[in-house]
Amino acid sequence: MRNHMSIALVALTLGIGTVALPPTAGAQVILAQQISMYEARDIAAENGIIAIRDIKLYDGKWQIWGKDTRARNMKIEINATTGMVEWLDTD
Fold it and tell me: Core-most of 21, 33, 41, 81, by most CB within 10 Å?
């Protein structure tokens, strides 16, 4: 009798365990949020670029070329995950 109770308890435990977990529980991947091109343009504007000539997403960074208020060439690189300015250059 004790043997049958142990088997029933194990079967019940295994059954509940598989029901409680979603089928993809072991395969969940959380991806980092990426800032949009429009958000990158806003960050570039906040840093002085008023006329954007070119914008590209390359190697996890938004690269933006344009001009400032004095018509000087500028380039900014923005981390596409964090939105932080990693590089800013003015001619």
Answer: 41
pTM (whole model) above 0.70: no
Answer yes or no: are the C-beta atoms of 41 and 34 closer than 8 Å.
no
User: What's the domain count of the chain?
Assistant: 1
Beta strands in the chain (DSSP E): 51-58, 61-67, 73-79, 85-90
Residue type, 20: A
CA 69, distance to chain mean position in Å, is: 32
Q: Which residues contact 33 (CB under 8 A, 6 or more apart)?
A: 81
5-58 tens-digit pLDDT:
555 545 545 554 445 555 555 655 566 679 999 999 999 999 999 999 999 999
CATH of the domain at 48: 3.10.450.40
